[in-house]
Fold this sequence. Notes:
Blueprint: E1 23-26, E2 29-32, H1 33-56, H2 62-85, H3 116-134, H4 138-156, H5 158-163, E3 170-171, E4 177-178, E5 195-196, H6 199-217, H7 227-246, E6 253-254, E7 257-258, H8 259-281
Antiparallel strand pairs: 1-2, 3-5, 4-5, 6-7
Amino acid sequence: MPLAPFSSFSVVPASIPSPPESSFQIGPLTIHYYALCIIAGIIAAVLLTNHRLTKRGAEKWVVIDIAIVAVPLGIIGARIFHVLTHPNFYFGPGRNPWNPFEYGSVWAIWEGGIAIFGALLGGAVGAWIGCRWTGIRFWTFADALAPGILLAQAMGRFGNWFNHELFGLPTDVPWGLEIESTNSAFPAGLAEGTLFHPTFLYEVLWNGLGVLVLLWLGRTVFFQWGRLFAVYLIWYSAGRIVWESIRIDPSEVLFGLRSNVWAAILGVLVGIVILIVQTRRHPGVEPSPYVRGREPEIADVDSQDNSSDFVDVSEPPVPAEAN
């Protein structure tokens, strides 16, 4: 998206300052706030998902067994997606992308560069493997995870604030973000002191509201069988289409749209498909968070009232054989 004329923007008294530091030292170690935000988000997602799975009748902390596989594959997927959608950062004359000791290596994830949509793809594969391992129904886990992953994404966006990155178009709104003119992403030709849309904050607020919506919807029986996860995909991706459209950081452009806008559009479509397909396939109540025959022996999971926390707004349950 082209920038508006530079002369129409001016510095305003009220604004959001960028943090003075993006990291700190502990002995020889450099600790990045960005990494801390991501780690905090992962922990919050695990705790919330564990709480929701336990209420459905799963063993406590079975989510750890799933996360052991899902989190690493999510990080790998996030890096691969970023590299594929920013090839000019890593490939070309004078670059050696496969040397892990050189700046700009595809392996150097500590230099930054991960993509949420790649994390979703890789994490989904890892979650499916983890669910097969533990016996948890994949869609039950996905529904339990939905509010938690949106919370993690909200927390992770604060890392962009600490890194002074991924900001939006110039603006003169009172909540404009201060970015130093020496920042490599600061557009050439803009006056020093120009403010920018704090896209990190927009996404934090949108995702935070989404967490509340998902927790509310998750209390109804209808939003089982992956339908709550479908709402998550639609909610997050719809917001991402907007925020991504006003960002000015470099990105691959396909048919006039940034690559992440296309990924967000796909996310909305996939969410709609999941919602339609799962509604037709599973009109009843999930009998258990476990696949039949995989219930833990220490507890009679089938005898638990797994629907006690839900408000039934679905059609009458169909026989278990039909599920």
